[in-house]
Inverse folding.
């Protein structure tokens, strides 16, 4: 994996993006608590960025299913894992039906 040397501003930009994309308040709060935990544990900025980005992609997947994190099934988690590393189109609810965001889980 390429080290990109993320900065505090790139992490804040990612969190701001999460605030726009994540629709379930509990999901956003979970992501923000995860950020605070990693900071308190002394994780590097690069690690924090990568973990938050992967978490955001997963939360977008959960919300695209119309579910919350506590309602997702094991089969749905396995489906997500099976798609890792493959380019896929994830519908983003706030976009119209013809617009999609490409993600790489």
């Amino acid at each position: 994996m390429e080290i990109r040397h993320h900065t505090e501003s790139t992490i804040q930009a990612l969190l701001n993006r999460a605030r726009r994309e994540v629709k379930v308040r509990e999901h956003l709060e979970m992501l923000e608590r995860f950020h605070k935990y990693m900071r308190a544990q002394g994780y590097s900025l690069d690690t924090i960025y990568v973990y938050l980005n992967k978490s955001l992609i997963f939360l977008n997947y959960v919300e695209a299913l119309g579910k919350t994190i506590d309602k997702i099934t094991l089969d749905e988690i396995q489906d997500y894992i099976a798609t890792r590393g493959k380019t896929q189109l994830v519908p983003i609810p706030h976009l119209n039906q013809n617009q999609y965001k490409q993600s790489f889980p």
Notes: Confidence is low (pLDDT under 50) at residues 95-105. The chain has one domain: 8-103.
